[in-house]
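Progress against Task 2.4 (sequence-to-structure conversion) is shown through the following example record, which the project officer requested during the mid-term review.
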Amino acid sequence: MTSIQMPQLGETIVEGTILKWLKREGDEVARDEPLFEISTDKVDTEVPSPVAGTVTKILVDEGATVPVGTALMEISEAGAAASGDAAASGDAAASGDGATSSGDAAASGDAASSPASGAAPTTEPTPEPSGGAASSEGSSAAPPPAAVTPPAAPAVPAAPAAPVAPAAAASVPAAVATVPDRGPRSQILSPLVRRLAKEHDLDLAQIAGTGSGGRITKADVMAVISSGGQVAPATAGATAPVTAPAQPMPAPSAGIGEEIVPVSHIRRAIAEHMLTSTQTSARAWTMVEVNVDHLVKLRERIKATFQERYGLKITYLPMVVRATVDALLEYPDVNARLDGDNIVRHRFVNMGIAVSYDAGLIVPVIKGADGMNTIGVARAIADLAARARSHQLRPDEVQGATFTITNPGPYGSVASVPIINQPNVGILSFDAIVKRPVVIDDAIAIRSMVNISMSWDHRVIDGEAATRFLARVKENLETWDFAEDLGV
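Structure tokens generated for the chain above:
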């Protein structure tokens, strides 16, 4: 029997949500065949089966969010049933204690599973760390430690204080108990949670975590930030008024011509990420106009040959990426992130490409884009976009961007103001290419023009640097000959 557990899909991933079971109890499953879809705060993806066999038990309902390592389902491996029958037959032929011992050994062999099969071990899921305290949940043989009653603290004479009104006194316990007792709190915190707490000077020890094992989530930190950073310090308890508990909001009801659509896991993650960005960065915006008439003519001339030779449709986006990478290496403050009181400049370019798909928006990352030619960039974009739309991306493929490009042009946008993809300090928007009259050598001509704009973080970048950077991108696109780089 093989136990399928919630996989660790990334260094900072601590839990996942079962979106959909693709197999049911009793279904046959082949090795590497998808078993279920899961969603994390990074990406949605399908999880394949490590073994071939039959689904015998599903342990978690659809929509449930569980920690990494939680047992989700059990699969009886192909051939295991026959082996079990043979073992049982051999046990029946034996007698007395020997038969019992042999039967136990056969059952143990089934439960252990073969390491060569690639299946996950059937041991109990490893509990999340809990502040360094040793965990005994994985062993039923170890008795629980005896409770130790701490010695009573010696009485300390209280300093004279002004009398406290009864109503104020009644509120003191509620204010002091800012973090409810939820048992051992998970110390696994995502980099975003730590960064938000640092930027807003929040004490994480005073924030009640609503995640698995008491883990503090982005939503918990954002709730504190939205309330003005107030975490109800104990010193404010003496004067805090007694307030009635908030009443739950009534469930919305659809009126005539209305439809209620629950917020999806991905939409919630997008909302949190966008809100965090607007509340974190000092966003400014700059745009330049670029003459790409020669690129339009080049694409028309080579698109059939390029697709036949490389199996790809050539678009303008790989050219924009190449031109932007060159500018990022020239202006390192745009290819950076802010870390507390330090600016971290990246000496490489991991280019994030915003991709729209059925669940919303996702930003897969071209790692090492500074080491690719235009053909390599085109292949990477096509691969990541296709797998994003089929929910096949891995979590590490949507992390680590040093800069981001969004491309609303195919949908007709001529000017856009994108939100910065944290922790980047800039995002470039490539809008629609349109023919319009322009002045060239004191004459009016019709050219294919495009607006390229950038939202940038004024905490790191100033207007001059942002404009020079965009001017470099413009110059590259207007003067580079991409024909040789495209191999045609």
